Amino acid sequence: MATSKLQAIWNHPAGPKTIHFWAPTFKWGISIANIADFAKPPEKLSYPQQIAVTCTGVIWSRYSMVINPKNWNLFSVNVAMAGTGIYQLARKIKHDFATEAEPAVANE
């Protein structure tokens, strides 16, 4: 039973013998790097980078559900990309717009 399941995965059109498996697998590196950036101060985050990560995640998540055969590896990595991008954008926006401006101290 286990052998037949492994063989089915191995021979799947989006299985390990194809680029449709390896490209999303290596794309996990972007999501992992974005997760590592959670420790970064928000002022060091980049709007263009996080917008690109978020849009890529959203667009390709949708695309991965439209194509045949369904590529769940592609879907999951792009959901992760969208999620981490949205979180990082929220951190950056909160830092830039929601924090109160510090009052200037007069030197007298």
TrEMBL record:
Topology relative to the membrane: Multi-pass membrane protein
Gene Ontology CC annotation, any one: mitochondrial inner membrane
Keywords on record: Membrane, Mitochondrion, Mitochondrion inner membrane, Pyruvate, Transmembrane, Transmembrane helix, Transport
A Pfam family the protein falls into: MPC
Keyword Mitochondrion in annotation: yes
Domain of life assignment: Eukaryota
Subcellular location: Mitochondrion inner membrane
GO biological process terms, semicolon-separated: pyruvate import into mitochondria
Protein family: Belongs to the mitochondrial pyruvate carrier (MPC) (TC 2.A.105) family.
Role: Mediates the uptake of pyruvate into mitochondria.
This protein's name: Mitochondrial pyruvate carrier
Organism (species): Arabidopsis thaliana x Arabidopsis arenosa
Lineage, highest ranks first: Eukaryota, Viridiplantae, Streptophyta, Embryophyta, Tracheophyta
